[in-house]
Amino acid sequence: MHELQHEHGGVGFMKPEDRFSAMLAAVAAVLLLAALLSQAGLYAASSRPSFRSERAGEGQPLR
């Protein structure tokens, strides 16, 4: 039982390959999320280009 747990990388006993692949997966997920967010931001900015200037009152200071 203990050997089986160690074989599957028990808590705190991850193999270097497992840790590397987990880190790689985390980095890939973060990059994917950042890409999706930037794409959504670019889409929103391109669909409403004058949104910010309208909110600011064309150069007037924000209240």
Give an overview in words.
The protein is an all-alpha fold. It is built from three helices and no strands. The protein has helices at 2-7, 16-47, 51-56. The longest helix has 32 residues, at 16-47. 0% of the residues are buried. The mean pLDDT is 73.
Quickly describe the structure.
Keywords: Membrane, Transmembrane, Transmembrane helix. Helix content is about 70%, strand content about 0%.
Helix percent reads: 55-70%
**Structural class determined from secondary elements:** mainly alpha
**Helix and strand string, N-terminal first?**
HHH
Beta-strand percentage range: under 5%
Average pLDDT for all residues: 73
Largest sheet: none
Radius of gyration: 24 Å
Query: CA-to-CA gap between the ends?
Result: 66 Å
DSSP summary, beta strand count: 0
Which parts are unreliable, with pLDDT below 50 for 5 consecutive residues or more? none
Sum up the overall morphology in one term. Answer: rod-shaped
Total number of helices:
3
Keywords for this entry:
70% helix; 63 residues; transmembrane; membrane; mainly alpha; 3 helices; rod-shaped; transmembrane helix
SSE map:
Layout: H1 2-7, H2 16-47, H3 51-56
Transmembrane segments: 20-45
Region (Disordered): 44-63
Keywords: Membrane, Transmembrane, Transmembrane helix
